[in-house]
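INTERNAL AUDIT FORM
Audit reference: QA-55
Scope: verify that the stored structure record matches its stored sequence.
Auditor: D.O.
Record contents follow.
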Amino acid sequence: ESDDLLDPSEGWRATLFLAPEVSRQGGAESFYLRAQGDASTYQSLGDLVLAGRVRAATIQGAGIDDIAPSRRLYGGGGASVRGYGFQGVGPRDTLGNPTGGASLVEFSAEARIPTPLFGGAIEVVPFIDAGSVSRGSTPTFGDIRWGAGLGIRYKTTFGPIRVDVAAPLNPTEFDSPVVVYVSLGQAF
C-alpha cells in the first residue's frame, strides 16, 4: 500500500514469510520453520517524509546447532542495523566471526528532509536503527545494538541513490567506529 517501490512517501508495507526447511548433518535430519514479519510505514508532512520499520524473525523446531549456518538469522548492515557491518549484530564465535541465531528483532526510524540543492534532488536523512539476534528461537532484548547516522539521497528518475554514514552507539570490540553504505533506493 505504499506509493512508490524505491522511494515511498505515503502508505505502508507488510510482509510475512513462512518457510518449512530441513537441515541434514551427520546423518540426522532436523525439520524447522523459518518465519519473518516485516512492516514499514511512511508519512508525508509537507515535503518531509517520516519512515519507520520493524522486523521480527524466528526459527522454530530445531536447536541452533542443528541449523546450517547459511540458514540462521543475521543482523547488521545497510538494510538492517546501520552502524554495524554486514552480519555484525548478534552472537560470535571465539574468533569474532558471526554465528547467527534463531531469532531476530529490528527497528528503524528516519526523517527524509528535502533540500534546495540540485533543484531539490538532494535529501538529508538522519536515522536511528536498533536490533538484536539471539541464539534461542525467542527474541531477547538484553543485547540490542543501536546505530545512528546521517544519509544523503540523490533523487534520480529511476530511484534515489543512497549514501549513509553511521556509527554504532554501543559497539563491541569487533565493530568499526564508522560504516558507510551506498545503495539504490531507500533503506526500507
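Auditor finding: record pair retrieved intact. The longest strand covers residues 28-45.
Action required: none
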